[in-house]
Amino acid sequence: MNSGVCMQFVSAMEKIFPEGDTGRPIERISALKNERLNFQLVVVSPFERKGECKWTVKGRLAPYAEVRVVDYAKGCYNIRPDSDDYVIFRDGRVTLYPEILRTPDYTDLCLYPNVYRTLWITLFSPGGLPPGEHELSVCLKDWKGNFLAEKSITVCVVDAELEKSDLVVTNWMHYDCIAGYYGERVFSEGFYGILGKFFDSAFSHGINTVYTPLFTPPLDTERGGERRTVQTVGIRAENGKYEFDFSGLEKFIRFAESHGAEYFELSHLATQWGAEFCPKIVAERGGREEKIFGWHTPSAGAEYRSFLAAFLPALVDRLKAWGIKDKCFLHISDEPSEEHLPDYLALKRWVETFSDGIPVIDALSDYGFYLKKAVDLPVVDIYNSEPFRENNAKHWVYYCCSNHKQYVSNRFFNMPSQRNRILGMQMYLNGASGFLHWGFNFYNSYLSKEEINPFMTTDAGGFFQSGDSFVVYPARDGVWDSLRLEVFSDGLEDYRALKTLERQRGRAFTESLLRDEGMAGYKIYRRDANRHFDFREKINALISETAPYLPHEENMR
Fold it and tell me: How far apart are CA 156 and CA 70, in angstroms?
C-alpha cells in the first residue's frame, strides 16, 4: 500500500520551511574520516496526519548516525530596512524558521498534511568513519509500525583526515543565563552538571575557547544595572589589602578542560563601550560580603589600580602553576571610541605592567587605534578587516547585530545558511587566526533588563535580529543545538579541509582555488548554496588520492 509519504535528501545548507521548497536533492555526499558530516532528510505527507513516526537508519554507517527533528522557532525582528538582499524574506514578516534540533527522546516526527518536516542527520565517530562508499538508508514507519517510506543516500568517506584547526574560536557563554533558566545556584554541583552539557555542545562544534568569569562579566548590562553575580575568585579585603582564593577559578578551568577547552578568555576588566567603570566585584570585608567595585567606581581610579596591582600578579602565578598561562587572553573593553581611548590606553598599560605578557584582546576595528597599541591582538569587525589584512596584522574577526549589509557572513534566522557557512573559507583565504561571537546563550533582553524564554523570544526583546543572541536552546536536562550552530560548525570543517588540502598541494594552490571560485575578502563570494556544496565536494575529491567522485563537474569549470 502506498502511504503517499515522500522523502528526499538535501544538503545542510537548505532551510526547509513548513510550506515546502526543498531545494536541490542530493543522492551522494562525501566527508573525511574524522569529519562531522551534516545533511537533511525532508519528509512530507500529502494526504493525512501521521503522528509519532519512528525512523530506522540502516547501513554500515548507521552506528555513527545521530538523527534529530528540526523544529521551528518564531522570528519577529528579521530584517533591517538597510539590509542587503541576500536574505530569505525581504518583507519583514513574522514567521517560523527551521531552527531547533530536538533529540528523539523528546519528540517523534509528526507529519501533517502537506507540511514539510525535516530530519537532521549527523555522521561522526571520534575514532573515524570507515573509509569507502556506503549506502545509508532511512526507513520511516507510523506509530503502529506500518511502513511509510524509505530513502537511501551514498556517503563517500575519503581515506584521509581533516587537519586539526589552528583557529582560536570563541562564543561567549553567559553563566547567569544558565543559572536563571534552570534555577540553579551559580557554581553549585547542579549548575556544573548543566554547564557540562553547554560545554559539550560548544566544543563539539569547533569552539575551543571558554569565556572565563574571574568576576561578573560587565557585558550587555544597563548602566547602573546588575546581572546575577558570577565570580570564581574569592576575595578578602581589609584596609586596602587583598587576599585571593583561586580554588573556584581552578575548579572552573579544570572542569572546562575536562570537556575539551583549549584556551581561556579571562573576563573583561572594565565595562563595555568606553571602559569607564569597573566590573562588579564582591569581597568579604569585616566578615560580610559586599560589592567593592562596580558602576560606582571608575576604572581609572587609584583604588581599582591598587586592586589590579595586587590581583594580576597573583592570578598570573596561578595560571603558570596550572600550566595554562600561555593559553590565556585578557579583555579590557569592547570597541573603544576616540572619546574613551585615552582612558582605555591608560588602563591597558597599567594591566600589562602586571600581566606578564598575557595578550590583551578586544573588539577593535579602527586600525589607527591598533597602531597606538590599544590591543595586542585585535578582534576586528569583518566590515573593517581590510587594513589589518593588507598590513599582515595578526587578528581575529567577529560579527554581531550590526553585520547585515555588504553580504558579510552572519547567522540570523533570516539569512541563508550558506551566508553562515561561508565564514570558514573566508577566514582561510584572508588569514584570520580566530573568531569571536558574543552570544552563545544570551537568554536576557537587551542590556539584561529581564530574563527571557529563548523558545518564545528570539530577538532579545526586540533589539537584536532573531538569531543574534544565542545558538543553543536549554532542554530540560541539557542542550538542544540549533541548525545555525551546526552550519557554523560546517564552516569550520571547511576551513580544516582547506588546511588539509594545503598540506598536500601547498598554500598557493589552495588560495588560487578559492580565488578561481570567486572569493575575495569577506564581501565577495558566489552566493549559492548548491555551488558551495559542489565546491566542498571538489575539495574532498582533490584531497583523495584516487578522487573517485567529482560532483556536477560541468558546473565547476
Answer: 25
Enter the DSSP assignment of 524: B
Report the C-alpha gap between 404 and 48 in whole angstroms.
40
**CA-closest candidate to residue 358, choices 380, 376, 379:** 376
User: Phi/psi of residue 311, each to 5°?
Assistant: -75, -45
Q: Which residues contact 127 (CB under 8 A, 6 or more apart)?
A: none
Q: What are phi and psi of 136, to 5 degrees?
A: -115, 130
Distance of alpha carbon 544 from alpha carbon 407, whole angstroms: 32
Chunked into runs of 10 residues, the chain (557 residues) has average pLDDT values of 85 95 95 98 88 93 97 97 97 96 82 94 98 98 92 98 98 98 97 98 98 98 96 96 98 98 98 94 96 97 98 98 98 94 95 98 96 97 97 97 97 98 98 98 97 97 97 94 98 98 97 98 98 98 68 40
State the residue for C-alpha cell 514539510: 116
Cβ proximity of 144 and 66 under 8 Å: no
Residue ranges in 54-163 assigned as alpha helix (H): none
Answer whether 405's CB lies under 8 Å from 83's CB: yes
- pTM beyond cutoff 0.70: yes
pLDDT at 21: 83
**Residue at grid coordinates 543516500:** 153
DSSP assignment string, 481-524: EBHHHHHHHHHHHHHHHHHHHHHHH-HHHHHHHHHHTT-BTTTB
Largest CA distance in the chain: 85
472-475 and 434-437 strand pairing: unpaired
- 3-class SS string, 245-281: ECHHHHHHHHHHHHHCCCEEEECCCCCCCCCCECCEE
